[in-house]
Design goal:
- By secondary structure, the chain is of the alpha+beta class.
- It has one domain: TATA-Binding Protein, CATH 3.30.310.
- The chain is built from three helices and nine strands.
Length: about 140
């Protein structure tokens, strides 16, 4: 089986208001944090378009309110859940949590314009904002 990520994070589009923050150590990982100089802008796609993109992921189910779940076979090796959050019909951010293979995580990000659209990750429990490379290193539970 491929590598696995385990996380609880808010996924936001990267914009020009991002500044470098301090380097911190959490659970043995030295991580370069980010800071938002001003509130983050929404993704460049509508809420409905984001829901439509999610439907392209195998074994992923969505609700009209933006809730989604994607899981492995019935043995339950992994499960990814989340919620799309909108403002003025635009996708503002995505809250996602659980455990999933690297390939499913990449499929999830692609639904929101990645890799063309940069994505930053706010780790909910740790209260830190990370760039993609640091987030992947932190969430990697392989």
């Amino acid at each position: 089986m491929s590598g696995m990520y385990e996380f609880h994070a808010l996924l936001r589009p990267r914009n020009s208001s991002i500044a470098e923050g301090p380097i911190i150590t959490i659970r043995g990982h030295s991580l370069a944090t980010l800071q938002l100089a001003q509130p983050n802008s929404p993704f460049q796609l509508s809420f409905d378009d984001a829901v439509g993109e999610l439907l392209g992921i195998e074994r992923l189910f969505t609700e009209p309110d933006g809730a989604f779940v994607c899981s492995s076979d019935p043995l339950g090796e992994w499960q990814l859940e989340g919620t799309l959050c909108e403002h003025d019909d635009r996708l503002l951010y995505v809250e996602a949590w659980g455990r999933c293979p690297f390939v499913v995580f990449d499929q999830l990000l692609a639904c929101f314009g990645w890799p063309t659209t940069g994505i930053i990750f706010e780790c909910v429990q740790e209260g830190v904002l990370l760039a993609e490379a640091d987030f992947r290193r932190f969430a990697d539970k392989s």
